[in-house]
Amino acid sequence: MRNKLNCIVIDDDPEVSSYVSEFVRETSFLHLVSVHGSPAEAIDVLGSSDIDLIILDINLPGIDGMSFAKTLYDQYGKDMPRIIFISGSGDYASQGYKVDAIDYLLKPFTYEDFFKAAFKAKNYLVPTVQKSEAEEFIFLKVEHELIRVAINEILYGESQKDYVNIFTKGGKMITALSTMKAMERLLPPERFMRIHRSFIVALDKIDAIQHYTVKIGKAVIPVTDQYRQQFKSHFKSWL
Asked: Which residues get modified to 4-aspartylphosphate (predicted)?
């Protein structure tokens, strides 16, 4: 499980970008991946990196920040990176809920303001993990209760909008209220790998690999382009 949230800053004002970037660097649970002057510049990073949080200006050249956020939401739903909007005006603050924005900061804002918003993001994105002393169990939110699940029993997970179906030994399926990003953080990275936008698999439960397709029991799951390099690196001795 990663200790830091990967973050990018999108703002066309170099001065604002500079002090926001410094705020990110001062925040122990954030990692600054890159800084961009427009959404168009950030597309490649969003496609190739696992970005958790976007610090996004509203008033931007080309496509404005709110329209860009809505585009991401339409494409990825709740599995999109979370957003903290920044703006010199409060005109759009009421629209943030439409894209599940974490917060809306009015310029100029202090580090204290920023930290509060970032901490909200941390609490939203990093699930509470409860494990045994041997770290062999996780707790998943199922309807109105937390269900204990043995990590070693998990075969793979499949996202379904606001839920993730966890398939375990014996053919059992558990439907947890979670996003795939949150599940990816919850499960130990040395034992689980995201191989598809909608799938994460237990590496030691893979029965066969053929042409970038993995088989776990009766399930046949493709490894999509976005995750192939990581997958190939892990299995380079065999592929």
From this structure: 57
Question: How does pLDDT run across 103-114, given as a tens digit for each residue?
Answer: 999 988 999 999
Do residues 12 and 38 touch, judged by C-beta distance below 8 A? yes
Q: pLDDT tens-digit profile of 32-43? A: 999 999 999 998
Q: How many residues does the chain have?
A: 239
Tell me the whole-structure pTM to 2 decimals.
0.59
Q: Which 3 state secondary structure label does DSSP give 137?
A: strand
H/E element, 139 = strand 137-142
- Residue whose structure tokens are 């860009």: 68
Rounded Cα–Cα distance for residues 77 and 100 (Å): 9
The amino acid at residue 222 is P
DSSP per residue, 20-56: HHHHHHHSTTEEEEEEESSHHHHHHHHHHS---EEEE
Biggest CA pair distance of the chain: 57
